[in-house]
Structure formats: C-alpha cells, structure tokens
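As the next step, I wrote out a protein sequence along with its fold in token form, included below for the reader:
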Amino acid sequence: MASSSTASSSAQLGLGLGLGLGAMGGLGLLLPADREHDPELEPCSPPKGVQRLRGAVQHYEWGSRGDASLVARLAGETEGRPCAELWMGTHPSAPSSLASDDDAAVSLREWLARNPTALLGRAVTARWDGDLPFLFKVLSVAKPLSIQAHPDRELARALHALRPTTYRDANHKPEMAVAVTEFRALCGFVSVQELKDVLRTVPEVRMLVGKEDIAKLMTAKEHDGGIGVRSYLQSAFTKLMGTSKEAVAEAISKLKSRLNAENKIRTFTEKEQLVLSLEQQYPGDVGILSAFFFNYVKLSPGEALYIGANEPHAYLSGECVECMATSDNVIRAGLTPKYKDVQTLCSMLTYKQMFPEILQGVLVQPYVIRYTPPFDEFEVDRYLLPQGESVTMLAVPGPSIFLIMTGEGEIQADGMPDEGVAKEGDVFFVPARTEVKLHASGPGCLQLYRAGVNSRFFC
C-alpha cells in the first residue's frame, strides 16, 4: 500500500507520513517498485471485479437493539430484535452473498470457488485451499459474552471430529477487536501479585479454591520462570470452575452481602463494580467469581486487542470491528446459558499471566491506520477521510473486504458493477491485484474499515 493524497493533506500529515513510510518495510507493504517484480501482481485472466456484498446478521441475545445497535444500523434492520454481529466472509454458519441482482443467490464462497487463484491470489489460494482465510465482523455488545477461549488447530480438529454439531469447523480462531466505541473486555490472567491480592481480599474465592492451592500461589514468585506458577494457577482455576452450582450460589450470596455492607465505609474497586454488574445479568454463574482472575481491559475508540489460541476472554460491552481466522469454534465455561465445556477449557488454557498488548495502529499513509496482529490470516485498516479527500490502495497480492461505517463517498476500481457510490453499511469484496481509489464526497468524515490478509504473509 502506498499513499495518494492532495498536496495540502500531505503537508498536514508530513511527520506522520514520514513515520508510516519509514515503517513500511517492517509492515510488508508493497511499494510501486515491488509491483514490477512481484509475480503475484503479474497480469492474469481478469476476474469479475469488485463486488458488493450482503453480510449476515446474527441475533444473539447479548446484542444491542434498535438505534442503539451499530450492527442494526449498518444492516438496515428495524424489527427491534437484538442485532449482535454482522458477518462478512465465507464461513458456512453465516456466509455473505453477492448483492448484485444477477447474483443475489450466489454466496461469496461459491463465487470465489469459480476462480480462486484470480480472486484470492496464488499464495492465498495455495495456503488456505482456495477459501477466504479471514472472517470480518462488527459487534454490538449490550450484555457480556461468555467466559471463553478458542482452540488451536490441533484441538480444533479433535473437537470437530468428536462433536461436529458443537464445534462446527476444524480451524483455529485467533482474533482481533478494534474498538469503535468505548469497549470493555476481560482478557488473560492477572499477574501473580494481583492474584495474591484477590486471594487475600476476596474470602468467597478463597472458600472455593481451598487452602492447598492458596498456599502454593501465595508463596509463588513473579519471576520464577512461570512453570510452577502456571501449574498452581491451573489447579486453582480448575477447582473454582468445577465447583458445584450450590456452592457457587452460596459464595456469590456471601460476596453480595459483604460488599453491600462494606459499601457504607469504602468505595468499590472497578473489578468489584464489574462483578456486581455481572451478578445482575447472570445470577448464580461461576463466571462472576472467575472475573477476579482476569485482566479488566478498557479500549478507547481506535485501540485494538488481539487474542491468540487458548487464551481466556469475554467481551463485556461496546461496539467493535472484529477480524479472525475463518472459524466459529468457541469453548465456553461461564456467563452463558449455552453449552459449557468446563473441562476442555480449563485443560487447554496457556495460563500466561500478563496484561494483553493494546495496539494503537500504525499510520501507513494519510488517513489510514493499520492494525497488524501476529497472525497470517488477517490485518485491519481504519480509514478516516475528511470531506473532499482521497486515498488510493495499490494492488496487493491478496483479497480485501471494505466496510463503510459512516459517511458517503465513491469507490473507483476495475470491474466496479456500478457508479461506485459508497454509503453507510455498504460492503465490498476487492479481489487480489485490484487498485482501489476512495474519495469522501459527503458531509462529515468517511469512516471505513478494510480487512485483508496480513501483509507480512507476502514478505
């Protein structure tokens, strides 16, 4: 990707652009010189070009409703049902379809299968068997999602073979969330010191974990190599999550009573406030107590969080753009009425104790911020174009999906089936080796997001 902007915008963002261009080598971006020698960009039989897509809405109960739901607004839904997720991709659970009148019944997966090399590029076709390697989503979270983790490839294959109706594919599911609004989540285990503080100050957790595991954790050191601490943490967490419903309900009741009494003499911590909120939404659920074990993460708009395989997490509230490997495998253990596979989740986790990395994104050209997680399948670009400004995405070796979040503009690219008008909620599939020009023509800012294969994959 390289920049194309007006002289005035380049001058305004000269410093940032210099930083962005200086980092391009590390980001695996394709400069014009690269295009002359890259076999991925050599001409081939041209496919049918850029396509408008229809995404699929998932109406999970934790989703926001009506005008409060970004997903509902983007999808044009007015029925008042909870609109939790908008899916853009080829996963069979909710595949996208072509939006043109001629191909309205054609799924994106079917269309890609007609000419995968031309549409996805040689390298992507070879690596991912002719399928789109990423699934692009928008989430509107009104109620906390489950305490969950996603399996690595080996475990995903085993679970899919064992219970294909529950674990619907054999792929792993690393993922990344880019906050559109203030976004809250639980992610990963707290540090050794914070865990010791929990065991000292939360008697209801101590009651369920037991003296033996508490003694081991209280004597653990922060920097002992992690192996011992992880085994102690796994034992304590597994014991907590496996506690009977009756014992959990009793512990939560005691927790509420104690906090209500202490509220008269002190202010609650953020984690205590969160736990009480979870109790109102999922009364009697063990996930309420497990929240004490996890990092409480707050993202501001434009910040991103990525989550690897076998890492515990739960999204709590807010709206985000999410991208992941093409999978829908979720192993749950709390804060949900759905099927819980506690034993599998407790056995699969890495039990790393660290605060997750928060990505701020890197300026790769004027008005374009890139979020690059450590996964081959995907990256996400955020475009914020002021009225009257333009930007160009040069042809890259892999496919992209564009989502117009707010504003109006035009998209110019080879093979556009219409005049290229772009407005809120529009979704476009861009084949490999296709240059795209974007122009903000409406009032206000044109905000859009692009999902594509990680640029580092092509290095």
Notes: The CA atoms of residues 3 and 365 lie 5 Å apart. Residues 245-262 form the longest helix (18 residues). Confidence is low (pLDDT under 50) at residues 1-46. The first strand starts at residue 51 and ends at 54.
